[in-house]
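Sequence and fold
=================
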Amino acid sequence: MRKTIHSASNGIALKLKFLAKEKEVVRRKLVITADALRISRKTLEKKVLERTKDLEKVRAKDEAILASIGEGLVATDKNGRILLVNKACERLLGWKEGETQGKLLSKVIPMSDSTGKTIPALERLITKTLKDRSTTTTTTTMYYKRKDGTSFPVALTVAPIFIGKDLIGAVKVFRDITKEKEIEKARSEFMSIASHQLRTPLTAIRWVLSSLKRENLTEDQAKLVKTAHETSMNMASTIRRMLMISHLEEDGMEPELEQVVLQRELEKISRLHDAHRQRNGLELALQCPQDLMVRTDKQLLIEILDNLLSNALKYTPRGGKVRMSVTKEKESIRIDVADTGYGIPQEEQKRIPEKFFRASNVASPVEAGTGIGLYMVYNIVRLIGGTISFVSQENKGTTFTLLFPS
């Protein structure tokens, strides 16, 4: 019995000793793990601190960039509510960022057109951008109203903001173009005054030259008078265009709408260029349904077509072809003026509507040009509610397309 008890006691002692060793091993492992965790925590804290500092630097850098941008910047969510504005925006509009956050852009910054008519929220660029998910830019002058109620002209661009493929809002960048408009107005006034001053003496010169053409002149004299008369006619045409541009830029023209029989006007315009066409061996084709009409300003339409046809004939080499065609497409009247001429270099095509621009491949030909014709055409087309576009390939030709509501 005693032997049995003694053996049991020894067994228990051995087990306790074994457990004690295991406990010591576990304790040591826990100490090692705790030390490792402390090191890891310190390392993590250091990395978090460094990352926080990096993020703060990035944020400070972004804020500095936004603050230094000279143009106004407004970011909105996809519902058109303001998220942030930069310092330039605050300066231009008089609003502080805290006063605008969370408010609808259309309520904080009213927009109007050149006539003073307020642009509805549904027609504003930001609405179009959020709907079409694409960048949009103003093509006409718009006006922003400041906090104090005063207005100023702006040029602006709106771009969508994406995270991955998700649209989260839009960013609008705008700038005050008051100085540009003042310079443009001064230039336009100068053109108007200069053109008026030139018309009177030029009319007298043309009258004298017309009289001389009827006199009994030698061949050389007749040639000189004819050249002088043609030059004076070209100069008169340039002055007329300058005056028209001046009126267009000052919003001083109102279209006089009437029903215009297109075939009749196309034939009249083509006859104006018969001499040039025949002299240069050019072929002109007119295609227009006999009774097709469009409601528009007849004189302005004639100005558009005369310019486009003149350019087509002027910049098409001898033996080339020019075509003017009119078709009805659903609710629109389409007019095409096509030629087989020099064409427009691809890299210069976006500059065609600019005032005084001439393509490099026709900048020094025999035929001179002022670079104001197409500028005027683009403005007149917009004035009478049409659209204009073109396709061109260098040394193959150009086609200008006009679309007007039928």
User: Anything to note?
Assistant: The domain at 178-253 is CATH 1.10.287 (Helix Hairpins). The chain has a mean pLDDT of 84.
